[in-house]
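haha ok so turns out i had the wrong file open the whole time. this is the CORRECT one, sorry everyone. sequence first:
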Amino acid sequence: MMKYIIVTGGVLSGLGKGITASSIGRLLVGRGLKVTAVKIDPYLNCDAGTMNPYQHGEVYVLNDGGEADLDLGNYERFLDVELSSDHNITTGKVYRTVIERERRGDYLGKTVQIIPHVTNEIKERIKKVSESSGADVTLVELGGTVGDIESMPFLEAVRQLNRESGGDENCIFVHTTLVPVLGSVGEQKTKPTQHSVKELRAIGIIPNVIVARGKEPIEYDIKRKISLFCDVPLEAVVSAPDAESIYLVPSILDKQGITDYLLRKMKIDRPKANMKKWDAFVHNLMNPKSTVEIAVVGKYTELKDSYISHIEAFHHASAEAQVKVNLRWIEGEDLEKKGYEKLLRGFDGILIPGGFGDRGVEGKINAIRYARESGIPILGVCLGFQLAVIEFSRNVMKLKDANSSEFNPKSKYPVIDILPEQKGVRDMGATMRLGAHDVTLNKGSMAAKLYSGKTKISERHRHRFEVNPLFIKNIEASGLRFTGRSKDGSRMEVAELAGHPFFMATQFHPEFKSRPGNPSKVHLGLVMAAKQYYKKKKE
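then structure:
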């Protein structure tokens, strides 16, 4: 029978349920188990696609085009798996399905209610993912906080799932909670944890494991107190202090015996862990031999979670190159003023990530111009790719009015234009060019070299606009080469500038497929180029 590990959270949001679940999954994978993951988001949106990054962080894109919560990215990176949109369950998805069934008459005239119709739909979705994946263990992270109105149907559903699957042997509850330190006294307080567990037990869910979050490791006496007051075995109270890197968390948890405890509870016999590759990655990440400074010129830099896949891609590249990457965050709007060059001096590389809307666009274009003219390595992704084309058209081809029809529909030179299939689109959700698409790279190009000589690759996309086919010939004749195209050759995917140390832009999002031990090729390329640039500066 399928084994489920349900991860809930208490006290407040943002405690790290996703990293806890991902780390547990990594430890089980290290024991030879096949693990998959489900993220439940209680919001009414059908998916994260229409959300502003300031609301919920980065929108993570899956191979099948699903736009999901950023925790799906953590699962893919930690478990080294590819998930689908079915692995992200939202209130919107569930209610839409239930209402559609009611309209069709599927419920045979019954009164449609939260219990059993909504909870049954939730359970069916979890079971479908578990069965189709062929996994030994399914991790289910329940977003939000215990006590939230929005979470109640999901908590009831997993309570029922526990009973239906045979109890603790097949369905284990891991509750992540906060152990704060009170002011100057320095005492770790257990009362928030006690109240959170009380709330959970009132719903009918008894936690098997408590992961106690805090700045520092939880003291032994505090562990004993939590064990006593929350009726959880002492060995099942696990301390999860703030870590220098999220990739250290599996080791922190494993050293406290959580893996062995979970395996015993599930009655699974597995040999000692094989974490050699993971440990080697972590060792390289934590022991760099040099340092580079890379500027991220964005639109949502106040919330770093807006660019979390880029951050992790740089971590993966950092470990591969054994180069510490210090990211410095610059708002695009700050580069729109005169003297923007001063803000960019001293960096060894620049990243222009994706985004929507015209806020900060002119500042990003200035950053691209500065990098092109001064020889600083630069990588543009999605919008960054489009802005690289605009900057080149304006300042090299002298098409002063060059722009995207997204920002200026009346531009004389719309070098970036809306995708043909997007022209009649009215709904905003799940209507872009999304998910994995094949890309053909020019043989011998810098891009092909970064991909180890491959000329056929697959990368994930999320965009409505593309390089206008009417301008491609003239742009290439002027020196900006499109070295990557869609499978049918109609869409531009990669741009390179001949004679520049590293000037690359991709319409696709390479950060979404970056993994520990297998970093995004273009992020690694930027880091290696930045390393060379730094070396030349010092000579």
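The CA atoms of residues 482 and 495 lie 4 Å apart.
again sry for the mixup
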